[in-house]
């Protein structure tokens, strides 16, 4: 019975390879929020492509990532990390802000 284990391991390897390819296919970007300051303030993403935005609150104050245009919001406690997956965007410039620091926490996602 040597054939069966070999077939199984080949199938497993193919599944793992497919999973890795899928994960790599999702472009990923990072936004840091620190006591009312966003970094970067402009995130350029590919248009018409699903993408992932990692959110990292490195500050000592809570923040809420919010975009009215993109209908996203996420509260992050100090030190917390999270992410949002965005549906494909038409080319354009989309505003986001920190709802807990709306005067200083400002940024845009630019799809091109
Ligand atoms: Cu909100």
UniProtKB/TrEMBL annotation:
The keyword Signal applies. Residues 1-23 form the signal peptide. It comes from the Bacteria. The keyword Glycoprotein does not apply. Gene3D superfamilies: Cupredoxins - blue copper proteins (2.60.40.420). Keywords: Signal. It is found in: Periplasm. InterPro entries: Cupredoxin, EfeO_Cupredoxin. Its main location: periplasm. It holds the Pfam family Cupredoxin_1. SUPFAM superfamilies: Cupredoxins. Residues 11-111 form the EfeO-type cupredoxin-like domain. One of its GO terms (cellular component) is periplasmic space. This is Cupredoxin-domain containing protein. It comes from Simplicispira suum. The lineage of its organism: Bacteria, Pseudomonadati, Pseudomonadota, Betaproteobacteria, Burkholderiales.
